[in-house]
Design brief:
Elements (H helix, E strand, L loop, with lengths): L5 H5 L6 E6 L22 E7 L3 E3 L2 E3 L8 E4 L5 E5 L2 E7 L3 E5 L1
Antiparallel strand pairs: 1-2, 1-7, 2-5, 3-4, 5-8, 6-7
Length: 102
């Protein structure tokens, strides 16, 4: 079972939202070409650090399909980027999660 980080303890997403920390991509250099951070593409994979209780549908709460600790793929421009405790996080809806990595 995944342990909660200090940041996850401070963030409680509402409804069907999840908080994701983007996975660090390993930097690969080809030849002597250096690519600055501003020119790199945003990662599209991350680890879920907090999960909301689920959405309501016809008066009943629908439980979340993802859980804390899942590694997921999400859309390139989905969600809202926030900084909490100098940590870049992404808050997005469960429907923006494309797949769970195993």
């Amino acid at each position: 079972m995944a342990t909660k980080s200090a940041t996850a303890a401070r963030v409680s997403p509402l409804a069907d939202r999840v908080v994701v920390k983007a996975m660090e991509e390993t930097e690969q250099m080809r030849g002597a070409l250096y690519i600055p951070d501003t020119a790199k593409e945003k990662p599209q994979a991350g680890k879920i650090i907090a999960v909301g209780p689920g959405r309501f549908d016809e008066g009943k709460r629908v439980p979340m399909e993802v859980k804390v600790g899942d590694k997921v793929l999400y859309g390139k421009y989905s969600g809202t980027e926030v900084t909490i405790d100098n940590e870049q996080l992404l808050i997005l809806r469960e429907s923006d999660v494309l797949a769970v990595l195993s």
